[in-house]
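Retro notes (design track)

What went well: tokenization of the new backbones is finally stable.
What didn't: we kept losing track of which sequence belonged to which structure.
Fix going forward: every design gets posted as structure first, then sequence, in one message. First example under the new rule, 344 residues:
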């Protein structure tokens, strides 16, 4: 399938900037909220037909250039023996988190083709109905380790980083297991039909550059190398990474996602011309009046100019109360403005 999104991943010329949005399937859409009145998030994820239905909701509503399979990064940890539930108003909770080296020894090393077979089935089903490329994804080893150790979201990651500093051997053992699992999961998604793969390192900004180089980057790199054996382009995305973009690039990926905390021109200068950039509108700017939103988008598009390697996205995921009509305006404007700018 040749599309402007796939072409942009390979730095080929496109007729307009491709756009997709992180968390484009989710709570900001009334169709999704209606489903959630009856079903829990894990019910939707683990029922392939329903995961496909949610995946398709934004594709049916908007002129997006790619779909991303409806899933979550955390169910992958269940196959290792961690107990996951989503608590309303709180978010994900692991009730048997890793606390010591002995807990790491006990972790299973599952084949994702079995442990998350439902997501792989959803990918295969989604490909049968999609007319745009499908993105598969996984959490990065560091982010998954943080959830596994903290037991949920965290502000300072004191438990995870304490284990990292105090028991480095145990930390590296955990990361070795996670990087193998993540790499195989991404590869299996490509086998199932995903055409692009994204590694989400949501919490990596909690690390200093030196700590990232020592404790996280080798494991993201290992997972990405396995993913790339599928032949699919790989997107490497993290938040709060402005101070370590050269290391993120060194970790691998054909496309580097950047958040809104850096000027996109600076990101291009730091990353160099040989990788594609994805980003980087602040998700909260979708709450601004449409005229203000368009000005912000125009600024980003103008800065990227005719750069052949650029995909428009947000700097992180869509927020639950994002105005749906502003999402529609954003997508239309990116296509219309960039198409005119490139003479189409």
């Amino acid at each position: 399938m040749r599309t402007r999104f796939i072409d942009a991943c390979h730095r080929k010329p496109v007729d307009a900037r491709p756009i997709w949005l992180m968390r484009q399937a989710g709570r900001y859409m009334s169709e999704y909220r209606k489903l959630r009145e009856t079903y829990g998030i894990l019910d939707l994820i683990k029922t392939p037909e329903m995961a496909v239905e949610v995946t398709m909701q934004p594709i049916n509503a908007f002129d997006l250039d790619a779909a991303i399979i409806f899933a979550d990064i955390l169910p992958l940890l269940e196959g290792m023996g961690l107990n996951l539930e989503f608590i309303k108003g709180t978010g994900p909770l692991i009730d048997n988190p890793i606390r010591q080296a002995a807990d790491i020894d006990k972790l299973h090393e599952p084949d994702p083709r079995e442990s998350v077979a439902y997501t792989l089935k959803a990918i295969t089903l989604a490909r049968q109905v999609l007319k745009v490329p499908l993105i598969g994804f996984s959490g990065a080893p560091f982010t998954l380790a943080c959830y596994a150790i903290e037991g949920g979201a965290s502000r300072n990651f004191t438990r995870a980083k304490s284990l990292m500093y105090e028991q480095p051997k145990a930390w590296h053992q955990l990361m070795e297991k996670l990087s193998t699992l993540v790499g195989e999961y991404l590869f299996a998604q490509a086998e199932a039909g995903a055409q692009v793969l994204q590694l989400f390192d949501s919490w990596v900004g909690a690390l200093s550059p030196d700590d990232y180089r020592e404790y996280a980057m080798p494991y993201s790199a290992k997972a990405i190398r396995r993913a790339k054996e599928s032949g699919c382009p790989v997107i490497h995305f993290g938040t709060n990474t402005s101070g370590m973009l050269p290391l993120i690039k060194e970790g691998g990926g054909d496309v580097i996602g950047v958040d809104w905390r850096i000027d996109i021109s600076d990101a291009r200068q730091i990353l160099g011309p040989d990788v594609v950039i994805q980003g980087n509108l602040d998700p909260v700017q979708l709450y601004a009046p449409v005229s203000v939103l368009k000005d912000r988008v125009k600024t980003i598009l103008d800065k990227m100019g005719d750069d052949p390697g650029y995909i428009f996205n947000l700097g992180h995921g869509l927020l639950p109360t994002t105005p749906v009509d502003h999402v529609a305006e954003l997508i239309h404007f990116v296509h219309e403005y960039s198409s005119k700018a490139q003479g189409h």
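Added context from the reviewer: The mean pLDDT is 96.
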